[in-house]
Specification:
CATH topology of the largest domain: Rossmann fold
Radius of gyration: 23 Å
Shape: globular
Distance between the termini: 69 Å
CATH class of the largest domain: Alpha Beta
Bound molecules: S-adenosylmethionine
Number of strands: 15
Length: 422
C-alpha cells in the first residue's frame, strides 16, 4: 500500500470505531493509531477526521441525493471521508478517489459504486460545497433537549458546528504574557488567542511552562471569581487535566486537586511539572467520598454532555449513541450535594459545565437552590468591566452557546457561583 492509502485506511478505521463503538477521538486506543504516524501526517489525519465528523450531516445529504440504495456502515464511512476531502477540504480528487477505491477493495465494498459516485460528486463539487443543513437534521436527542431554543439560537448553533476552534492560552502572570514572543490576541491581562498555527510543543514559552491551553469560556469563571471573598482553602473536585487549578495556583492560593480518573491524573501531573506547580492530588470519586476537611471554595467542573465543545469534539453528534443524560444529571446533583456539606459558611461553590443545555445548567442549579435553603446564587459579575463579554452573562449566570469574541471562536459554557449563607 502507498503512504496516502495507509493514512486513509487509518482514517477510515478510526471514523468507523468512533461511529460504531461510541469512542472519542482522544481515547487511548485511537491516540495509539494516530501517534504512530509522523507529525506532518498527524496534522493531515486530524484534519480529515475532525472535518469528516463536522460535515457528516452535510455529506449524508449529498450521499442521499446520489445513491438510492441503503448503504452498509463501511460504505457510508468511506464515502464520508472521501466526500469531505473532495468537497469541503478541496483536496485533489484523483488522489482521494484512487485511495478510496483501494480501501473499498480491502473491505470487499463494491468499488465500482465508490468510484462512480466520487467522480460524479467531484464534477459537482462547487455546487455541493453550498449544501445546507437544518435544525431538523440534528440528532433527535439534541432536538429534544433544546425544544425551548429560539429561531436565533437554532441558527447560531447550526452555523457553529462546522467551524474550527481557535487556540486560547492562559499565562501564569501578566509579565509572562507581556514577555511572550508569539503573537497573541489579548482577551485579558492574563490570556489571549495564539495566532501561530505551529505545534505548541515547539514553542519555547510553552516548554518553559509560561502558559497552558484553556478555552476562553472555561477560563472566564475562575478569572471572575469574586475577589471580595478570601479563599484560604480551595478544593477542585474534578481537576484533570488542570486548567482551572493552574489559574488558582498561579495566584499562589492553596488548592487540593481531585479526579476520579487515574490516566487523567497522570496528564495533570505532567502539566503541573511543566508549569512548575506543586500541590496535593487525590484520586477519589467525589460523588461518594466524604472528605474530612472543610473548604472556602469548592470547584465542580462536572462531567457533562460537553456539547459546548462541539467544534473541538464533533464526535458528540457523529457517534451512534447520544450522552447518557440520566446518569450525568445524577452525578452532577450528587457532586453539588457533597460539596454543600464540605463548604464553610460564607464560602462559594463554583459549578461549571461545558454545556448550555438547561437540564445540566440552570435547572440543575435551581433544583439545588430549592433543596438547599442555606445557599443563594451569588451574582456572576465581571471583575474587570469589558463590554465584549456582557453577552456571556444572563440571569446572574455565565451561559453561552458556542460563540465568538474578537472574531475568535469560544466554547459554549455555563457557570454559577453558589454562596453558603447559613
Ligand atoms: C470537565 S473535566 C474537568 C476539567 C478540569 N477542571 C480542567 O480545568 O482542566 C471533568 C473531570 O471530572 C472527572 N470526574 C468524572 N466523574 C468524577 C467523579 N465522580 N469524581 C471525581 N472526578 C470525576 C473526569 O475524570 C474529568 O477529568
Amino acid at each position: 500500500m502507498i503512504k496516502g492509502e495507509k493514512i486513509r485506511l487509518d482514517i477510515h478505521n478510526i471514523l468507523y470505531t468512533i461511529f460504531k463503538s461510541n469512542k472519542n477521538l482522544k481515547s487511548t486506543s485511537i491516540e495509539k493509531i494516530i501517534n504512530k504516524h509522523k507529525q506532518e501526517d498527524i496534522s493531515f489525519l486530524n484534519n480529515v477526521i475532525l472535518n469528516s465528523m463536522r460535515y457528516h450531516i452535510h455529506v449524508e445529504k449529498i450521499i442521499n441525493s446520489h445513491i438510492k440504495k441503503k448503504l452498509r456502515d463501511h460504505e457510508k464511512i468511506l464515502l464520508l471521508s472521501s466526500i469531505t476531502q473532495i468537497v469541503f477540504l478541496n483536496f485533489k480528487e484523483y488522489a482521494v478517489i484512487n485511495c478510496s477505491v483501494e480501501i473499498a477493495k480491502k473491505f470487499k465494498i463494491y468499488h465500482g459504486l465508490i468510484n462512480a459516485t466520487l467522480k460524479k460528486i467531484s464534477r459537482n463539487k462547487n455546487y455541493l460545497k453550498n449544501t445546507k443543513i437544518n435544525f431538523s437534521d440534528l440528532p433527535l436527542w439534541f432536538r429534544s433537549e433544546t425544544k425551548y431554543f429560539s429561531e436565533n439560537e437554532r441558527d447560531k448553533f447550526i452555523k457553529s458546528i462546522i467551524q474550527e476552534p481557535h487556540l486560547h492560552i492562559v499565562f501564569k502572570s501578566e509579565k509572562k504574557l507581556f514577555n511572550c514572543k508569539e503573537k497573541v490576541i489579548k482577551t485579558s491581562d492574563l490570556s489571549g488567542f495564539l495566532e501561530s498555527k505551529t505545534n505548541i510543543t515547539n514553542i519555547n514559552s510553552f516548554k518553559n511552562g509560561d502558559w497552558w491551553v484553556q478555552d476562553f469560556s472555561s477560563f472566564f469563571p475562575i478569572y471572575n471569581l469574586p475577589t471580595k471573598k478570601k479563599y484560604k482553602k480551595i478544593l477542585d473536585t474534578c481537576a484533570a487535566p488542570g486548567g482551572k487549578a493552574f489559574q488558582i495556583l498561579s495566584k499562589g492560593i492553596n488548592i487540593t486537586l481531585n479526579d476520579i480518573n487515574k490516566n487523567k491524573i497522570k496528564i495533570l501531573e505532567s502539566n503541573l511539572k511543566r508549569l512548575n506547580f506543586q500541590t496535593e492530588i487525590l484520586n477519589k470519586d467525589f460523588t461518594k467520598f466524604r472528605f474530612k476537611e472543610k473548604y472556602d471554595c469548592i470547584i465542580i467542573d462536572a462531567p457533562c454532555s460537553a456539547i459546548g465543545t462541539i467544534r473541538k469534539n464533533p464526535e458528540i453528534f457523529f457517534k451512534m449513541e447520544g450522552p447518557n443524560f440520566n446518569e450525568l444529571i445524577k452525578v452532577q446533583e450528587k457532586m453539588l450535594d457533597n460539596a454543600s456539606q464540605l463548604l464553610n459558611k460564607g464560602g462559594l461553590i463554583l459549578y461549571m459545565v461545558c454545556s448550555f443545555l438547561r437540564r445540566e445548567t440552570e435547572s440543575q442549579i435551581n433544583n439545588f437552590l430549592k433543596k438547599k435553603t442555606d445557599f443563594k446564587l451569588y451574582n456572576f459579575k465581571l471583575e474587570k468591566q469589558n463590554s465584549n463579554y456582557d453577552k456571556l452573562i444572563k440571569d446572574n449566570f455565565m451561559i453561552t452557546l458556542p460563540d465568538n469574541i474578537m472574531k475568535q471562536n469560544i466554547d459554549g459554557y455555563f457557570a454559577a457561583y453558589l454562596e453558603k449563607i447559613k
